[in-house]
Amino acid sequence: MPSLNLTKPQAVLQAVTEFNELGRDAFLAKYGFGKAREYFLLINGQQYYDSKAIAGVAHGYEHPKSGPLHPSVFSGGEQTVRRALQSLGFTVVKGVPPPRDPDALVLVENEITVGGEYDFWADDTGARYQYPNQYRNLVRPGLPFVYYRGIRRSGGKRGTAEYFGTGFVGKVWLDPEQSADTPARKRHWYCAIENYVSFPVPVPRACLTRRVR
User: Fold this and answer.
1) Within a 13 Å sphere around the CA of 112, how many CA atoms are in the beta-carbon half?
2) pTM value?
3) What is the pLDDT of residue 88?
4) By the 8 A CB rule, do 172 and 141 touch?
5) d(CA 15, CA 57)
């Protein structure tokens, strides 16, 4: 049975990038992890990641033949995940991440997603944006945002992860096509996009604020 073996910081950063592209819930579901309750990987002093999930997926990036570790084959916590990540120069904090209201948002609008699992969002660039219930309290009218897309492009092509436009969040409403008995955790929402301006030249990815989706 494989055990956690991390020696390359780049593998951890690759796992973080995938986490950002998929979003927390989709990332955890893809690899079978639950949400962290105690130990979190801290990036850029403000972005919190589920440390055990990141470590398990990073193992797969570093050791592609064995692949990512399932959560049942290794333990998290002080002596395993925290020690492994800190030995690579990362910061792992203990405790629940403090809530933080964003000053701006990054709206992720990828052309395609891994395996096409999340290509169903009914976005209309510059007009409206659809997002899951987990971001309901973050997306507020009046907030400025920038649009972001990852490296995957339609037709199997790959490009540069980049920002391509900006604007403001307008009114917010519940997806009218969902049934009234849809569980809250599965609801979808829309927000209107106001004052949208596309960038003449896309800006390569730099420091990120709070992403949505």
Assistant:
1) 11
2) 0.52
3) 94
4) yes
5) 6
Provide the β-strand partners of residue 47.
43
Alpha carbon distance 191, 187 (integer Å): 14
pLDDT in tens, 154-202: 777 888 889 999 999 999 999 999 888 888 888 999 999 999 999 999 9
**CA of 151: how far to CAs of 17, 32, 43, 129, 172, in Å?**
11, 24, 21, 20, 28
Q: Which amino acid is at 110?
A: N
Q: 33 and 76 in contact (C-beta within 8 Å)?
A: no
Read off the DSSP letter of residue 124: B
Q: Do 127 and 183 meet the contact criterion of CB atoms below 8 Å apart?
A: no
Residues of the chain with pLDDT under 70: 1-2, 46, 98-102, 113-119, 206-213
What topology does CATH give the domain 105-212? 2.30.130
Place of tokens 């391509």: 164
Residue appearing with tokens 């992720």: 108
Range(s) within the chain of domains with CATH label 2.30.130: 105-212
